[in-house]
TrEMBL record:
Family the UniProt entry places it in: Belongs to the glycosyl hydrolase 2 family. Beta-mannosidase A subfamily.
Cross-referenced InterPro entries: Beta-gal/glucu_dom_sf (IPR036156), Beta-mannosidase-like_N2 (IPR054593), Beta-mannosidase_GH2 (IPR050887), Beta-mannosidase_Ig (IPR041625), Galactose-bd-like_sf (IPR008979), GH (IPR017853), Ig-like_fold (IPR013783), Mannosidase_ig (IPR041447)
Record-linked SUPFAM superfamilies: (Trans)glycosidases (SSF51445), beta-Galactosidase/glucuronidase domain (SSF49303), Galactose-binding domain-like (SSF49785)
Protein name (record): Beta-mannosidase A
Lineage of source species: Eukaryota, Fungi, Dikarya, Basidiomycota, Agaricomycotina
Catalysed reactions, as listed in the record: Hydrolysis of terminal, non-reducing beta-D-mannose residues in beta-D-mannosides
The entry's keywords: Glycoprotein, Glycosidase, Hydrolase, Secreted, Signal
Length: 963
């Protein structure tokens, strides 16, 4: 049976006086087009129209080929979901005093809802949860159906923008479905983005429930984290007169607020706030809190009586816990992500002739930590004694200590939220941790990520996994790359959306902050300075992001900071909250930044890199692997770098309209082509499939080279005047198989970049900073550790035959969050042997550091000339298959630059060093220095559980021009 269906049987018994929760997916559902030409069985929530059309065989997998174009008819249709309510209505006993609630955790997006022929509501916000009292609608008025009639979000958006009072926005919105998304509270990237398709889906994309509250005799209800999240076995879940519709658990320091930094020695405050629906009046409600692991129990908190009303009612308890009692939660690379089970016990007495006591108990996982975004000015002492460039701080502190944020950005995991799985998401998050990341930014053009699959209809797990793994999640409200209208109609919808999501996420210690949106501050500053009435748009921005949203977020949480935008110049003041915009002193550094450079000639020119306190977004695009293309290309002729289908899946720069294929794709393809041709051997072999595979691989090699160099530059900045304390690469995951900035492909396959990040995100790393114009080389050891570290770096000069010409070992000491210069010289003649050709040589840099009893190593490479002109030698790679998918790689000829091993189609997993267990791939394989890789299979995501070792492929740059 489906989840919660066993509990729902209690409701379906005639004359039952017990309350229950019925998962509406257990009903019989149909999906039909507005004109009735299509009518098919549907699966019920969570689902979306494309998913049900696919199940019915009316469309093929939307991600195949050019289906994002051929299936546009689905976007233009108004779809109607209908469920047969006969089982519910037949079981309803009008003589029994009941309250009946219809609960939707997510409707995407514009829909009219009717219950048994009675109008219920018109909804227009994908990110809200909705609860409707249908008690007076249990008698059919014409039919026995629950109907959710959707209007195309695209057509709705067009209608809104054609209103006389619709405001004009000057910044364009140039994606496939342009100009409407700021008027629709829906995933922005559903309308298209430069890394993904535009399906503009619709449907009841999260679970929905029918809830009955009764005046039955006293009962005990045990659940997991509310709302919903039932206990097991589920047949024991029986509701009394009260349902917990929302819960907020905010843990912070006494006296802490948005503008007041946490006092690390102060008591902890555990603020438990519950939103209740009550079917009866209750007297003397009480709440008691406890942490059994800490042997802590609060006093009983008493509340005012609850009324019998259709309105949501709130109770809140503040529990003081001494600072020294709990262990603190830390990101995985800075400590232990310690979690505790918080038990909440509610006791409610119903009033009236039949008094009874109802007990509701639930347990939720949470943790103790302080996380602060520091934005105050640097002191004169910092400037004079530490050499800090004047300006403002912009960094995070965990439990009172500044740390370096290493990570990436998250986009939606699938174009269709309803089919996203926890296995899929867990793999991506675990991959982030394996590569050394401690922070993920949840991009504001996507969706609010769920807590877990059973909490508020989450469908899959996200924040709970972040809590467990010890990775911080920078959260954003869903506003992105657009100016937004200010009117009561939208603000009335936005306020409950924001409140609901902030409350839900409060309990997660992994949550790092709330940003108002993505990249909008820079847009409005530009508009303000370039358009005659630009001040009007700036004032609207201030109203929405400085005043309206900030007040909502800070009224719902004290544990995290709010900032107006992902990329921002910071604040003039926190109390009152006043944004800085461009009001900074010349020569000072303010806020954070982002960088995108598509001129490959400047890829490694450090003078073009921003000197900034924190880099929250930077990237370069690449192809997915040949194996990912195999998942979606349907014709042999498609397997070519510039084939029509491949180019149609490059949306950079975006089309700006519904043109197909993207007329701007040659620009994006050209940027990747120029980068490869400039820095790597140009793929060209007698085998067209190999050439295509090498093009895919080569774009990933360049992406890795340029991103690793940027990460190193920003990490080095921790010890320079900018005091840079953050580098978040764009982006971690993919939404489909196409050209993107990701380090992990849609299937979960690691790109070269993901292995590259594993190396450059190592706690201690040596990196070569090369200034080509002056031929200056500086090799620097960089540490992100809180403690002083000691170690040894080895710098080795090789030729492409694998001959070692020079080797130097250097001991280093690196202060906290700082760096140490290992080697510095000017002129190629000081690096390579006298009379030598720079094209014949390269340098290997390794570090070895002991930290807390563990050995950390890293490996980086320096090429004094472009690899496109390097005198590579046939490496003659030999692969020896061992047991349990181990592979010994040997170079029998020359050095194999960027040796890369691919796992076959249908498998999922990563390659690790067989000795250390650390992720390893994409390295220089030197003759006489064999590497043994082991493939760790992910059985949950792999369709092929026992892959043949002979199906694994090894390639290097040599294969760009040689079969």
């Amino acid at each position: 049976m489906k989840p919660l269906q066993l509990a729902s049987v209690l409701l379906l018994l005639p004359g039952s006086t017990l309350g229950s929760i019925l998962d509406l997916s257990s009903l019989q559902w149909t999906l039909k087009s507005q004109n009735g030409s299509i009518q098919i069985p549907a699966s019920g929530p969570p689902s979306q129209a494309h998913i049900d059309l696919l199940r019915a065989g009316l469309i093929t997998e939307p991600l195949l080929g050019i289906n994002d174009f051929t299936q546009r008819w689905v976007v233009n249709e108004n779809w109607i979901y209908t469920a047969d309510l006969t089982p519910i209505l037949k079981a309803h006993d009008p003589s029994t005093k009941q309250t009946n609630l219809l609960l939707f955790y997510g409707i995407d997006t514009i829909a009219n809802i009717t219950w048994a022929g009675h109008p219920v509501a018109w909804v227009n916000n994908q990110f809200q949860q909705y609860a409707f009292d249908v008690t007076d609608k249990m008698s059919p008025a014409g039919n026995n159906n629950l109907t959710v009639a959707f209007e195309s979000a695209w057509l709705y958006g067009l209608n809104v923008t054609q209103r006389a009072d619709a405001e004009f926005f000057p910044n364009g919105n140039g994606y496939e479905y342009p100009g409407v998304r700021q008027w629709v509270r829906k995933v922005a990237s559903d309308f298209g983005w430069d890394w993904g398709p535009a399906f503009v889906p619709s449907g009841i994309y999260k679970p929905a429930y029918f809830i009955t509250l009764t005046t039955a005799a006293g009962n005990t209800q045990d659940t997991g984290t509310p709302p919903i999240s039932p206990s097991k076995p589920q047949e024991n879940l029986v509701l009394g007169p009260v349902f917990i519709e929302e819960s907020s658990i905010d843990i912070y320091k006494e006296g802490q607020s948005f503008s007041v930094a946490p006092n690390q020695k102060a008591d902890w405050i555990v603020n438990v706030t519950l939103g209740l629906r009550s079917g009866v009046s209750t007297e003397t409600p009480t709440m008691q809190l406890s942490f059994s692991e800490l042997k802590l129990q609060s006093q009983k908190f008493n509340f005012e009586p609850l009324s019998q009303t259709s309105e949501l009612q709130w109770i809140s308890a503040l529990w003081h816990i001494p600072d020294s009692v709990p262990e603190r939660w830390y990101p995985h690379n800075l400590g232990t992500p310690k979690l505790y089970d918080l038990a909440v016990d509610l006791e409610l007495e119903t009033s009236g002739q039949k008094q009874s006591t109802h007990k509701i108990s639930f347990t939720t996982r949470t943790g103790f930590r302080t996380i602060q975004l520091v934005q105050d000015p640097y002191s004169q002492e910092d400037i004079e004694q530490r050499g800090i460039t004047p300006g403002d701080n912009w960094h995070f502190e965990i439990n009172g200590k500044a740390f370096y944020a290493l990570g990436t950005n998250i986009i939606p995991f699938d174009p269709f939220y309803a089919r996203t799985t926890t296995d899929q998401v867990r793999w991506v998050l675990e991959s982030a941790v394996k590569s050394g990341q401690n922070m993920l930014r949840i991009w504001g053009g996507g969706t609010y990520q769920p807590s877990g699959p059973s909490v508020a209809g989450g469908v899959y797990d996200f924040y709970s996994i972040c809590d467990e793994l010890g990775i911080l999640a920078w959260s954003e409200l869903i506003f992105s790359d657009s100016l937004y209208p200010i009117n009561d109609f939208l603000l009335e919808s936005i306020e409950p959306e924001v409140r609901q999501n902030v409350r839900r996420i409060n309990r997660h210690p992994s949550n790092a902050q709330w940003a108002g949106g993505n990249e909008i501050e820079g847009i409005v500053v530009t508009v303000n300075s370039t358009i005659a009435n630009g001040t009007h748009y700036l004032n609207e921005y201030v109203t929405l992001f400085q005043d309206f949203l900030q007040k909502i977020v800070t009224s719902e949480t004290r544990s995290v900071t709010y900032t107006d935008c992902s990329t921002t110049k910071g604040v003039l003041s926190l109390d009152p909250y006043v944004l800085r915009f461009n009001n900074g002193t010349e020569g000072g550094i303010y806020g954070n930044g982002e960088r995108y450079n598509y001129d490959a000639t400047q890829a490694f020119n450090y003078s073009t890199f921003p000197v900034i306190r924190f880099m929250n977004e930077f990237g370069f695009h690449s192809m997915p692997s040949f194996y990912s293309w195999e998942e979606v290309l349907t014709s042999p002729g498609d397997f070519s770098f510039n084939s029509t289908v491949v180019m149609s899946r490059d949306h950079h720069p975006p089309a700006g309209d519904l043109s197909f294929p993207n007329p701007n794709a040659p620009i994006g393809q050209g940027q990747m082509t120029a980068a490869v041709e400039l820095w790597l051997p140009t793929p060209n072999t007698a085998d067209t499939n190999q050439t295509f595979a090498q093009w895919c691989y080569s774009t990933q090699i360049f992406q890795t080279m340029t991103m690793v160099s940027e990460v190193a530059f920003y990490r080095r900045g921790a010890g320079l005047g900018e005091n840079n304390l953050g580098a978040l690469v764009w982006q971690l995951n993919d939404i489909w198989q196409g050209v993107s900035w990701s380090s992990i492909e849609y299937s979960g396959r690691w790109k070269v970049l993901q292995y590259g990040l594993t190396s450059i995100f190592s706690p201690v790393v040596a990196y070569p900073f090369w200034i080509a114009e002056t031929e200056n080389l500086q090799i620097t050891a960089i540490s992100d550790r809180w403690e002083e570290v000691h170690g040894t770096a080895t710098i080795s000069l090789y030729d492409w035959k694998g001959t070692l010409h020079n080797q130097t070992e250097t001991d280093y000491t690196i202060p906290s969050l700082n760096n140490s210069i290992l080697f510095e010289t000017s002129g190629l003649n000081t690096i390579i042997p006298a009379g030598g050709d720079a094209r014949d040589f390269w340098i290997l840099m390794t570090t070895k550091t002991e930290i807390d009893g563990k050995t950390f190593t890293s490996e980086q490479y320096f090429n004094p000339t472009s690899l496109a002109s390097a005198n590579l030698i046939d490496p003659q790679i030999q692969v020896t298959h061992g047991s349990k998918l181990t592979f010994q790689l040997s170079a029998k000829g020359g050095v194999a630059a960027w040796t890369w091993m691919d796992h076959p189609l249908g498998t999922m997993g990563i390659f690790v060093d067989d000795q250390t267990g650390q992720p390893l791939n994409a390295f220089y394989l030197i003759p006489g220095q064999d590497r043994t890789l082991k493939f760790i299979l992910n059985e949950q995501l792999s369709k092929v559980k026992n892959p043949d070792p002979r199906d694994f492929v090894v390639r290097s740059l040599w294969n760009n021009t040689h079969v």
